[in-house]
Design a protein that fits this description.
The protein is α/β, with parallel strands linked by helices and about 475 residues long. The protein has three domains: about 60 residues, Arc Repressor Mutant, subunit A; about 110 residues, Aspartate Aminotransferase, domain 1, CATH 3.90.1150.10; about 240 residues, Aspartate Aminotransferase, domain 2 (3-Layer(aba) Sandwich), CATH 3.40.640.10. The protein contains 16 helices and 15 strands. The strands form four sheets. An eight-stranded mixed β-sheet has the order 4-11-10-9-8-5-6-7, with helices on both faces. A hairpin with a 3-residue loop joins strand 1 and strand 2.
Length: about 475
């Protein structure tokens, strides 16, 4: 098979960006510029590694990033090819369509990404090489359980039981390539076309898309300072006959960051048991909590009869590392998950699971979480100081007890399309309110601070402040 394309890149080992991400980004650029076209074959990982003078595992990591993000697709026994349908670089259809700018985006108010510079990538790479060298190649390259490596699932079960108050075993867990895959599996194994699903509004659109892809009709329920509004949930249950599930982010609600109160947690459990709907709980950032202890998930309550619990390790280790998990106390449901997983993705990345298991076993992950929690708490406090300096009297915000983002609501209604367009012209990109809801009255936006430097935080908040008027005193 001819692969005429040759990667032209000067790798910078001193760069803050990992080598495998430098490789991935150059390939993405070549796809975006048309140098690589849909269906084009990429050189094999061995050839790429030889051409670039790097370890083959580094190239494999780069290719995995491209596969996970949808830029390329791997075909068994044929190789890697540029995907026919590429990831969109525009906001989704409900979002504000911001005109393209010739300027370079140098600052992005993301929705809560971690800082990859503090990720334990050196330790992970070392563990990956160790696992590869220790394990027999036939064992690593053969098929594993579609639920994921059993030893890794046992450790995840132990973590959930000891740290999150759950009572699960390895057989209750499916390891996935990130939380979005877990949501997709849950949606397609729980729902039938026409089923209705309660979701928070504002909420997490990527999960909504997975639910809708399974044929669900979404019913948005408003969120206030204590989380999803129970009276509205009850009214919905009494007026609809096909409520099959509820998708919820109770620990730090996405995007508002509020924590679902204990009273409302107990109410949801009672309603789930009474009406028979399944609670799909997305606990996307449990590890980063700045108070005395994180709030235990709904799935930890023994009286909850039907749940599907979703978590991720991507924020703990590194954003590019796509490892999530789906947990349920319904064994028949987990069997359906295993069957579907086998169809769409025979198994996960067994080597990477073993490498992460190594980091958990030797205490690296625990040490990193302690370090990262202090790092992000300090950065949150610095962000708060900047918000007080530049946005006081112009916006409302609560100090989040965890997570990597603030929810900011201007005191006056803002023309977000105009603000976003003008900021983009300055190289600053923001997520506008319609990323989270179809409600035209929504005026807040999610400000992720985790991946930004102190200088970037000040530049961004100061720039935003120029577009937010203060309280009208007339």
């Amino acid at each position: 098979m001819l692969r005429p394309w040759k990667l032209e890149i000067q790798l910078d080992p001193k760069s803050e960006k990992a080598i495998y991400l430098q490789i991935a980004d150059v390939i993405i650029q070549d796809i975006q510029t048309g140098r690589l076209k849909a269906g084009d074959a990429l050189p094999g990982s061995r050839q790429l590694a030889t051409d670039l003078g790097v370890n083959r595992n580094t190239v494999v990591d780069a290719l995995n990033v491209l596969i996970n993000e949808g830029w390329i697709e791997a075909k068994p026994r044929k190789g890697a090819f540029v995907a026919d349908v590429l990831p969109t670089t525009q906001p989704h259809k409900q979002a504000v369509h911001i005109p393209e700018t010739k300027g370079h985006i140098h600052l992005f108010f993301d929705d809560g990404f971690p800082d990859s510079k503090i990720a334990p990538m050196t330790e992970l790479a070392r563990a990956y090489r160790k696992i590869f060298n220790q394990k027999a190649r036939w064992q690593l390259m053969g098929y594993n359980s579609e639920l994921g490596d059993e030893s890794f699932r046992k450790v995840v079960a132990q973590m959930l039981n000891h740290q999150r108050g759950m009572q699960v075993t390895a057989n209750d867990i499916c390891i996935t390539r990130g939380s979005q895959m877990a949501t997709y599996l849950a949606a397609h194994c729980l729902l039938a076309p026409g089923d209705q699903v309660i979701v928070e509004s504002p909420g997490y659109r990527p999960a909504w898309k997975a639910l809708e892809n399974a044929g669900a009709q979404l019913i948005p329920i408003r969120v206030d300072e204590e989380g999803i509004v129970i009276d509205d949930v009850i009214a919905c249950l009494q007026s609809h006959q096909k409520i099959r599930a509820m998708y919820i982010t109770p620990h730090h609600q996405y995007p508002t960051t509020v924590t679902l109160s204990l009273q409302r947690r107990q109410a949801l459990i009672r309603l789930s048991n009474e009406y028979g709907f399944i609670i799909v709980e997305d606990d996307y950032d449990n590890e980063f909590h700045f108070g005395y202890r994180p709030v235990l998930p709904l799935a930890s309550f023994p009286e909850l009869r039907n749940y599907a619990y979703i978590g991720t390790m991507s924020k703990v280790v590194a954003p590019a590392l796509r490892i999530g998990y789906l947990v349920s106390n319904d064994h028949a449901f987990m069997q359906r998950v295993a069957s579907l997983r086998k169809i769409i993705d025979v198994q996960g990345d067994a080597m990477m699971e073993q490498a992460v298991l190594e980091l958990i076993s030797d205490g690296t992950i625990k040490k990193h979480i302690r370090k990262a929690t202090l790092f992000y708490k300090n950065k949150r406090d610095k962000t708060l100081q900047l918000l007080e300096k530049y946005l006081k009297g112009k916006a409302l915000y609560e100090v989040p007890e965890g997570g990597l983002a603030f929810w900011i609501v201007p005191v006056q209604k803002i023309n977000w399309q105009q603000v976003a367009t003008e900021l983009l012209a300055k190289g600053i990109k923001i997520n506008t309110p319609d990323n989270y809801s179809d409600d035209p009255h929504l005026n807040g936006f999610r400000f992720g601070y985790g991946a930004l430097s102190e200088a970037q935080l000040e530049e961004g908040i100061k720039a935003l402040a120029t577009y937010l008027p203060g309280m009208d005193k007339t």
